Amino acid sequence: MARNPDADNAPVKKEIESPTSKYDAEKASSFKVVGSRPARPDGMDKVTGRARFGADMVMPGQLVGLILRSPHPHAVIKSIDSSEAEALSGVKAVVTRDDFAPNDDHADVLYNIMAREKALYEGHAVAAVAATSRPVARKALKLIKIDYDILPHVTDVDEAMSPNAPVLHDDIITKGVNPAPTKPSNVVARSEFGHGDIDAGFAQADEIIERSFKTAATHQGYIEPHACVANVGADGMSELWCCTQGHFHVRQVCASLLGIDVSRLRVTASEIGGGFGGKTTVFIEPVALALSRKAGRPVKIAMTRDEVFKASGPTASSSMNVKIGVTKDGRITAGYGEFRYQGGAFAGAPADFGAMSAFACYALDNVKTEAYDVVTNRPKGAAYRAPGAPMSVYAVESVVDELAARIGMDPIDLRLKNAAKEGARSSYGPKFGSCGLVETLEAAKAHPHYSASLGPNQGRGIASGFWFNFGGETCSNLNINADGTVTIAVGTPDIGGSRASMCIMAAEELGIPYDKVRAIVADTSALGYNDTTEGSRVTFSSGMAVIKASQQAVTEMCKRAAMMWDIPAEAVTWEDGCAKPSGPNAGDFEPLSLAEIAATAGKTGGPIAGHHEYNADGAGVSFGTHIVDTEVDPETGKVDIIRYTVIQDAGKAIHPDYVEGQFQGGAAQGIGWALNEEYIYGDDGKLQNAGFLDYRMPVASDLPMIDTVIVEVPNPGHPYGVRGVGETGIVPPLAAIANGVSAAAGVRMTELPMSPPRVLKAIDDAKVAAE
Amino acid sequence: MRYESPQTVEAAAALLAGEEGLARVLAGGTDLLVQMRSGMVEPDLIVDVKNIPSMTSIVEENGGYRIGAAVPSAEMNEHKGLCALWPGVMEGADLIGSTQVQGRATMIGNLCNCGPAADSVPGMVAANAIATIVGPNGRRDVPVIDIPVAPGKSTLTKGELVESVFLPARPKRAGDAYLRFIPRTEMDIAVVGVGVSLELDGDGVCTHARVGLGAVAIKVLLVEDAAKALIGTKVDDAALEKVAAATSAACKPIDDKRGTIEFRTKVAGVLATRAAKIALERANARASNGGEK
Hints:
Chain A has 22 helices and 26 strands.
């Protein structure tokens, strides 16, 4: 599942899945290339430095663009005077809110990329300059005079929901509450999911545990800061080079904000140094275009790390209550959760996704979840891998863990007893199709990690997690070249090795070696619209488009062979990369290879190509189960992760290395989120740790080797059985690690991150309480 | 902005003294370049000291070592004699930044940046390292503890720079250690840092001790009460308990993004005892090794 981050729309919810395609069991039993582990086509460029990322583009006459940002978390912008900056020698353009017309389609995005009546968070863009050099641009920023009227601010989700909180937007009237409130507040929407009767369910329970949890906001932490080069020609024809997960989306939004036709803007996606959901929207791109239009020269903007933390999109912080009841023999009778998420200064905190996925691992008769989307004076959130799910699952899986201990049941057995499986009604509505939670739990139980012995001050945690996955609009081209090689053009930026997977799938269909296929990410003028690389959709959706395009090319090549042999096209089959006569003509002619057919294509009708355009449906859900061993230093509260195992259903791993990489990456980011990463705000409403020194992501030496087990329960909606794997991996770690740390420390940890001061205090407080 | 690369320390001091605007010394540059890039400082003059021989060499002197102020941490940590004599000072310097940063970062730059959390300073304070300062009025020797005043502020006056630091000779049964607390394993800044230096007599009784404490006050502290708790003891559990209490008592930390007052105060004591144990082990190992460097 994915959400267009730039529209005020609810997540796409489908009651009935109607897959675009069906699993081809026969084909899947005889894969030749799928499942192999060839080197990725972009690997050499990336290790040698030849790969070009966002900031690597240089255009002739290029200017330096810098953005002036609000030092205040909440303030009315009474006036902006940029006359002195404009008069400075070397300054070629200054843009402010006055350079962008109001835009109903992308009102929040517009407000976020350039503040309008108010600055809504520290770091909110208020003006931008383009100058001939960085020192000149810096000097110009200092010359812009802004008259602020400082307002009270709020950064905490619970405080923002209180009736006395400063209100950010006077047009936010809480949706989903009956009767509708009469006054504006910071609560954008309330939503509710579930089925059954939870009161009746709790009445059947032998044990009930209810707890509150909090998690801090975290950043995706991609190593490459946002960067772009915009070039608007005198005739309005424009080009934009940028690092993004979705250049088609960038084009749509930028064209709209600038008021130009989509066809006039050509966007090229650079190589991308990590996105994790954070590069599914725009921040600097429309500003660079506006500066370039005004200056008449190309403009490059590259964020600093400080800007990335303060003014790109981290994920939500949360405050949650969860209540679960079980019988003595381990049947969950009811589950309830309330999830309050703040997603920064604009609507869109993924509280609804959190509420929908919280209990997704369980087949329950009685379940109810409520979600609150809340605004605060923080940067506008963006997607971060399985948006909203890691937090809510942390709360639910913590309580499940505690209940297992309470009734003396193995935590995997408790999960197996209640596990979601095919035909079960999910906690968010639809019934599950074929899915692999039980298989991951069984694999976890059988894994040597689960039965390994633990040392002093060590504790083991397990947790399961889930993500919906997404299909979406997709368009790919495939060209058969004259020398028998093949080129694929996809419209989904490669953030996890997808070019390798595309080449594998084309090679599989065409029956040619992997190294004969090259995949590129084409620009927005070369292909039809493609949804962004998000929702774990690319291997599933672009992959299926490549498979269909390959099949189309195969049909054409069979036709060409039939023409050359002068037999009916239906009498030709495609096997092992060759056209072969079949039926009554079998054996009449020597097979014609792809290369032979390609070489003479000019004489048989011209170039051979395939293409496929569709809106992919049937992205199968993916479940995972994680096992983690932690060690807590009882004198300092420091947590070490000693051993970690990820077990996840991939449907079918096209390139197992990159599937394992996704599993490991999810665990690594989850470890950071669980232990030390957090947005820390001072009483002044300013971010205290806008850099990698004090925003403590794990470094390589903080992590053990993360072991992986790929479970393959085929997705019935994909010819090869593929399920997206990019997001599920970050869902269980928060809970698994919290369960492990709670076991090691001897005290239940209910707030993330479990940083040393927090863990030490919990240990010491528990000691005092015990005395 | 002007860049100068003098050949002598006196010439460097003269350039610094003569600059009317903002002058900065460039040794490894691992603080300065970051500050310039982020716009924190915009110097008018940069004096690169890496071409000054007395500032780029490690020289044995009276059984101890004189280390030039521009000697990078990586070079110190490859010096066998230095590592054998003052392993605690060296491990402090070895924690600064990453392997790449180590190739440039200097211990004296770390000292003169005056960060309270500077990893190499508590060890130098425990070692009673002496800095040689050169300025318009000539040379003077100053204990390292007396150089930092507050973050970014030192007792160096206009035109002065540190030329070298001297780590003295030590008796046979002596050892030192530095421990810091960080929530991660590397590439981080100390939440608390403790350096302990011990000397023992033939019976294993502590005759001399110094404890340097970082990241819990406006500057690195010398904890005399912790040293007193060690002297005259065999560094047993009772003494270590007192060391922990004295070290915690010396803390004047703040609540901030890196840790709470409560946390830093407690962990300072924990680290002091752990560092003292390591220093003790090293002293005994060195003695059984015949006091070899």
